[in-house]
TrEMBL record:
InterPro entries linked to this entry: Homeodomain-like_sf (IPR009057), HTH-like (IPR037923), HTH_AraC (IPR018060)
Gene Ontology molecular function, alphabetical: DNA-binding transcription factor activity; sequence-specific DNA binding
Residue span(s) of domain HTH araC/xylS-type: 183-282
PROSITE patterns found in the cross-reference section: HTH_ARAC_FAMILY_2
Database matches in Gene3D superfamilies: Homeodomain-like
Keywords, alphabetical: DNA-binding, Transcription, Transcription regulation
Entry keyword Transcription regulation: yes
Family matches, as PANTHER family: ARAC-FAMILY TRANSCRIPTIONAL REGULATOR, TRANSCRIPTIONAL REGULATORY PROTEIN
Listed name of the protein: AraC family transcriptional regulator
UniProt cross-references to Pfam families, sorted A to Z: HTH_18
UniProt source species: Dyadobacter psychrotolerans
UniProt key word Transcription: yes
Lineage of the organism: Bacteria, Pseudomonadati, Bacteroidota, Cytophagia, Cytophagales
């Protein structure tokens, strides 16, 4: 079954897969299509930017991320991305694909849940050369719309394996079980966000004690489980405000599972430093 995170219509460069690659000289949208898309969008797919030379910056969920040589930025479905007005350095690859591509790969890639809360990855020179080579192969394959999808998926699998390895390289001694439990925590939170699950319920779901859950979440995120859930709820509120996806503060609060709009307003101000109305006005 096709995921709800659909690739934008007519973006795909393959007849059978929702995937697109862009370089300085290939794959750019027409000015008309780009204008319709705008500089800010709520992603419906996975996005990657690998800079070979020069520097760039992206704004993801309202945070600015600088990307330099041999660094890669990845952004996830539902995140808000603001495209830079300037070029992505002097040489780069951009890649986008949705859940359908992932569902056809032979393994899962934990980095796509961003358990270490870092969306920028730096590659060592030898790894950067391998990543560049894979991007170049994908570029050649996507230059023809009728390329066999199996060829594209084989190299996409290699690319994501390289990225996954580099992502976790900075945390060389994590317990695999701890990583797995934190990923399980993030998945559970995402799937039950507006139900406001209790820490005890999550710990029971993951078959760990509440103390162990606290230590795991604190290790990977720097936050307590309660702080993590609160920040995720307020981030979702900020995303919806950014796209004006509400008619009132009360409705926004109820949509996010808050029974008390006043409590939601106080929590929003505590986390962001602004009232809901003030935050919305800044975006207008």
């Amino acid at each position: 079954m096709r995921s709800k995170n659909l690739f934008p219509e007519k973006f795909s460069q393959n007849n059978q897969l929702p995937i697109r690659i862009v370089t300085p000289g290939f794959g750019h949208l027409s000015p008309e299509t780009a204008a319709k898309s705008g500089f800010t969008s709520r992603l419906q797919y996975y996005f990657f930017l690998f800079v070979l030379d020069g520097r760039s910056h992206h704004i993801v969920d309202l945070d600015t991320i600088e990307i330099g040589k041999h660094e890669l930025l990845f952004a996830l479905p539902h995140q808000i991305q603001e495209y830079p007005a300037t070029a992505h350095g002097s040489d780069y690859f951009k890649l986008g694909f949705d859940e359908e591509c992932l569902s056809r790969l032979p393994r899962q890639f934990p980095f796509l849940l961003n358990p270490l809360n870092q969306q920028k990855i730096r590659f060592l020179p030898t790894a950067a050369l391998r990543v560049k080579a894979i991007f170049e192969i994908l570029l050649g394959l996507l230059s023809m719309a009728d390329t066999d999808p199996d060829l594209i998926l084989a190299h996409l699998n290699s690319l994501l394996t390289e990225i996954n390895t580099a992502y976790f390289a900075a945390d060389r001694k994590p317990s695999d079980q701890r990583t797995e439990k934190f990923i399980g925590f993030k998945v559970f939170v995402e799937n039950n966000l507006t139900d406001h699950p209790t820490i005890r319920n999550i710990a029971e779901e993951l078959a760990v004690s509440t103390d162990s859950l606290y230590q795991i979440v604190k290790h990977f995120s720097g936050l307590s489980p309660k702080e993590f859930i609160t920040n995720r709820l307020i981030l979702e509120a900020r995303r919806r405000l950014h796209y004006n996806e509400r008619t009132s503060v009360k409705e926004l609060a109820f949509d996010l599972g808050f029974n008390d709009p006043d409590y939601f307003s106080r929590l929003f101000k505590k986390v962001t430093g602004k009232t809901v109305a003030g935050f919305f006005q800044d975006l207008s």
